[in-house]
Amino acid sequence: MGFRVITPGPLTTVQDAGRTGYQSQGFPVGGAMDLRALRMGNLLVGNPENEAALEFALSGPELAFTDNAFIAVTGGAARPEINGKPVPAGSALRIRKGDRLRVGAMQEGMYGYIAFAGGLDIPVIMGSRSTSLTCGIGGYEGRKLAAGDEIRERAQRIRLPHLRARRLPEAGTIPPVFRVIMGPQHGMFTLRGTEIFLMSEYIVTTETNRMGCRLDGPVIPAKHASDIISDGTAPGAIQIASDGKPIILLADRQTTGGYAKIASVITVDLPRLVQTRPGTKIRFQAITLEEAQAMIRQEKQYMNYLRERFRQPWRHR
């Protein structure tokens, strides 16, 4: 079997790395907001890194397990409990038939993940198990989870080697400065507009969601206007809307957009960005493409380290 949803939390969906290859037909990529947290959760339980998991926002679900399982809770500062007793996030956890997992309100961050060893028995639609709420497809009936929903695991894991060693290193606090590469239309903005963008503080607004992060702060003046002929969008692209304020495009972004893109948040900083709560003040720092590529290589090295750590933990003592 698997588990039954007792309470779903405000927004719990099934998400993997996303639905690629269909943007030309108008389907958004979607997928997990925090791809790093998704990948780490799957590493903890021995899954492929893009395996589907449950994504929850601000507060997680309560699940009743109908069979033994191994899980991991990652992402924002979640507070998981098994049968009312606190258990560590960022670790592989053993679940026994009849146990209840409850993930309360997160102390920090926006999105959390529950990864299940063996994966979830969710159909693949267009190459992905991700829920697209905008299209009403994928995941569990194309919608967020509700009380009473039941999901099975595809392949039950009887044993998870080195269970106690499957724990993520503690992460340090990083200032809310997000590195960007200047975008394809940054020349449409005045020199003063670029200076304002890079030197000002912006506040994450309550209008932020899975589609985009809307910011409030100083207006960024364009030379004429910020409208363009619609072209393709990418995760982290920063559009300047007609009111002169930035919008950062996220997982459920539209496939094309008609606002000029002044810059793009680099790939390795996107997980921090999506975990930033409304009301937080953020800044931007421009770097080169070569610097951003070097940071991606560093991230890959770190993920390789984690894979090796969980495979042969005695080498990392």
Give the secondary structure arrangement, pairings included.
Blueprint lengths: L1 E6 L4 E4 L19 H10 L8 E5 L4 E4 L3 E7 L4 E3 L2 E2 L5 E4 L4 E4 L7 E6 L33 E3 L24 E6 L8 H9 L2 E3 L7 E5 L10 E6 L4 E4 L5 E4 L6 E4 L1 E5 L4 H5 L6 E6 L2 H23 L6
Parallel strand pairs: 12-20
Antiparallel strand pairs: 1-4, 1-11, 2-3, 3-10, 4-9, 5-8, 5-10, 6-7, 6-9, 12-19, 13-14, 13-20, 14-17, 15-18, 16-17, 16-19
Tell me what you see in this structure.
- The protein has 317 residues and is of the alpha+beta class.
- The chain has two domains: 164 residues, no CATH class; 110 residues, Beta Barrel (Cyclophilin).
- The protein is built from four helices and 20 strands.
- It has a seven-stranded mixed β-barrel.
- The longest helix is centred in the C-terminal third of the chain and has 23 residues.
- It is globular.
- The model has no long low-confidence stretch (mean pLDDT 93).
Summarize this structure as a short list of keywords or feature phrases.
Cyclophilin, 7-stranded mixed beta barrel, 4 helices, globular
Strand content: 25-35%
**DSSP helix fraction:** 10-25%
Can you count the helices?
A: 4
Spans where pLDDT lies below 50 across 5 or more residues = none
List SSEs in N-to-C order: EEHEEEEEEEEEEHEEEEEEEHEH
Determine Rg (CA atoms, Å): 20 Å
Strand order of the largest sheet: 12-19-16-17-14-13-20
Largest sheet: 7 strands, mixed, barrel
User: How many domains in all?
Assistant: 2
